[in-house]
Write a structure and sequence with these properties.
With about 100 residues, this protein is mostly helical. Helices cover about 80% and strands about 0% of the residues. Helix 2 packs antiparallel against helix 3.
Length: about 100
């Protein structure tokens, strides 16, 4: 591929990643449960890593990969920390299927 075609491909890839990130934000806002929101935020972080990597190659600065790797580690550790926080908590009764069924009887 020529340089111009490659830059166009990277530009289209960046646009596609931004669209997917927007959809992830919609899921994070509208998610019916905390875990859906957490997974949407985790997906947003993963797409951010991808966007940083593609932008690094688009601008000719492959050292952006180091930043992307650090961001990926922080995203992973943040997800684990939030999951540990929610591990000991019980979901509200409105999300608990058994509690909802028990109230109907």
């Amino acid at each position: 591929m020529t340089g111009t075609a490659l830059q166009t491909t990277y530009g289209i890839s960046c646009l596609a990643v931004l669209i997917v990130m927007g959809l992830g934000l919609v899921r994070a806002i509208l998610g019916p449960s905390a875990f859906d929101r957490l997974m949407a935020v985790n997906m947003f972080g993963t797409k951010t890593v991808l966007l940083i990597s593609v932008l690094g190659f688009l601008t000719g600065r492959p050292d952006f990969l180091d930043i992307a790797l650090i961001y990926a580690l922080v995203n992973f550790l943040g997800t684990i920390a939030v999951l540990r926080f929610f591990e000991g908590r019980r979901a509200p009764a409105c999300y608990d299927q058994e509690a909802t069924e028990a109230n109907k009887d």
